[in-house]
User: Fold these one by one.
Assistant:
Number 1:
Amino acid sequence: RDTKPPVIQELLNRWPNRRFILVGDSGEHDPEVYGQIARDNPSRITAIFIRELSGTGRGESRYRSAFSGLQPESWHLFGQPEDIIWRK
């Protein structure tokens, strides 16, 4: 939780004209960290993908809180990497 935000912000700063897709898992704090980064950089984060490890789904209060203020289509949960289907 303490290391990812500054590292991601450094990447955003290093490439100011690029947009990013954030990929993580639900095991620790990725949803909360990525949600905040997307709110702080709305034009830079194209999508967020979270590998959902607990099987709770999008309706879980954790995800509603982590991704509050973001467009519902901007964040996605998946079980296995091959489950990712995304169209911009």
Number 2:
Amino acid sequence: MAARLGGKISLIAPRRELERSYRSLIEEITALGEKPVPFPLGFDYQTFDELLKRLKDNSMGVGIPEGFVANSSFWLVRDNSEIVGVSNLRHELTSTLRVEGGHIGYGIRPSLRGQGFGVEILKRTLSRAKSLGLTKVLLTCGKSNIASAKAILANGGVLDSEAYYPPRNEVLQRYWIDLAATAT
């Protein structure tokens, strides 16, 4: 897969050396007026070391807000220098996450969408989910987000349901991926 995507691709924990690339990723998203996805992209990053500490604390369940669960953020990186995308893996589900959010959220740098990175970041994040001991993973996406639905289906997703979700004023789809049945 790495050859098709161009360059050496890896999924890593956030790290300081990629601050410039992280900032340019946020600038790209902001310039388009998009909502940052996954949600940790909305965290304050002006003091980068504080952002890195917050992300690490989140992965251990330290200092997370009421109603949230421990969650790990990962960066899909090309050639050890460019953040291509970001994923967030929730270690368990709440009743809210069962409706919207699921176990995994991910987003790809706008200028690199449509090149297979969505499929790749999800594949690699599913592997991390499996290593956490999860056996079945829930993903949700807006029905109009065809690229995300395709990435989920390419990784073994099975559509469970779809329903109108008033807070987002759209139809949400819910997919399950059985990690025992996938080659992660």
Number 3:
Amino acid sequence: MLENKKVMRVRNSRKSYFPIYLMIFILVLTITIIKISGKELNKFALEAVLAFSAVLIIFTEVHRLRTFYEINESSLIHSQGIFSRVTRKVDLTAISDADSKQTAWQRMLNYGDVDARLFSADSTLPIKNINNPEEFTNFLEERMNEKRVSVSEISN
């Protein structure tokens, strides 16, 4: 990522759907092995596996694409939805700090969660299953610091 870039936009990582993609791969591999070995394969079973795999891929991609997070010069934005959209915009000065969290599995695949804590009433804005959560946290903190400096310069 470029250091001078002022906006970062991320979506949920495909890596978080790895178990689903692995299941699809195993199903397709099993069907392929049965076909190659010359054994009789029920036409319904083949169609069911292909339809199930297609539905799972579509579902995971729709689920992944319906959520995005954006950090710009003034705010952190969480937007959710495809046909109808709900957007939560939090001013950077309202965020007290941010933490990144990763399980051992997430560390191996370099994705995880970030919690942006707000000053108001111990609430947090959870940012789930994104690639490079540490980079996202660092970028967020840089924008927070820049915003605080600019606000203090304006007030002086």
Number 4:
Amino acid sequence: IMIYKFLGINERRILRLIEITIGMTTWLTITMPIWLSFWHPALMAYFVLAFDIYWLYKSATLCINAVRSYLKLSVHLKINWKEKALKQKNWKKVQHVVIIPEYREPKSVLKDTLENLTLQDFPKEKIIIVLATEKRDEMAVKISNELKAEYEGKFGKFLITYHPDAIGEVKGKSSNMAFAAKEITKLLEKENADLNFITVTSCDADALLHPKYFSYLTYLFLTDTDRKYHFYQSAIMFYSNIWKIPLPGRVINTLGSINSLAQLVLDKRLINFSTYSLSLATAKDVNYWGRSVIPEDYHMFFKTYFKYGDRVLTKPIFLPTLADAAESTSFWKTIVNQYEQMKRWAWGVSDDPWLIKNLFLHKEIPLWDRMTKLFYILVDNHLIWPTNWFILTLGSNIPPLINNSFQRTILGHSLPMISSIILTLSTLFLIGVVIVDMKLKPQRPESFAKWKTPILYLQWLSLPIVGLLLSTLPGLDAHTRLLLGKRLEYRVTEKV
């Protein structure tokens, strides 16, 4: 009881202290090869080798899990999910709410998303579209009404919401989702609809769901006895414009796509991302999406987790959901756009203090499950994001370079060579990633010249540079902002 009172009185200071600790840990890790090499170079060497081995394990599991997921996806694409769904007892009770949050998105992007939804093989009168706009968007009324006039008759319902700015809210997808979900819930409850048989899908404005998505989801939902506690996630593949973007963008988005695919077989470690579904009744029970956060997907998962405990899981949907990679009107604008998108994703670290606090308080959840979640989110995802490049690229060379006495030892002399061998083995697992990418990537368009095809293989040689510029530095930017207390405002990724 005393701890709860202490946390209640000092919550803001404690959360700020955790923010500073996370940011400092990031910078201490990056600079460790320098300061630790003066004090205890052997310890630094063992840390680098341990991290190299861990990276070898990460590379191997990425390759293996990507292949496993690809094989499952290949099989599931051929299954008649509609037939299986319509055989379920309560399928007629099911409705699917699709919330599309948007702010100043081009009409063409929204039109493509809606047009794609008309291709669903599940009865479309069971699909409810909610176009969730922002009131501050001066073009929202005009564009949304035009889209409603064109698509309203193609679905069961077509609702437009205009999210107003509110004190205490963070402008962005999460607060918009919360407002839209609350509005559609009110409407459905007036009609006496059973929320327990209604799913809600958070659908990014450029997300193209596979035509079998809602049939597959219906089958999973109705056969899932714990559907109240489950999220449903497909593979987010940034392939819609993959042939149009420049080489650095292709490399980073290909890796992101394959990683998203590989995560589908992670069981308890799978957490919803970007575009996903859950029960509308569950969304209501946890008071919808967070209104004061940017990373809406992880936050929604853990809001549910802290309410219901370790029964909360994300179940895989082995289908691809296509999305646009960051793009702009020129090479450098595209690079900046990609950087800003990665920084926004890395800003998920800002939710970690809230996560750590609640993992500490919710003792009704098994300790092992809480600690596993903490390691996977804080360490495996967030802390390694902005630090791995420095450890892998510079970590083995700095200790013998700045400590002459250590350089003359067997360990100091052998460190760069041993590290290089381990990292070379790690690189070999890229072959599996390349093969899966070749199998899943959309067919080469005529606009992409044949003579450029070898570049698709040579582009992987740029990974160290691309990884630094478009992954490590945006991550470090986000962590440094967290350390300094400079909040990040939600920035919509530009669409072309």
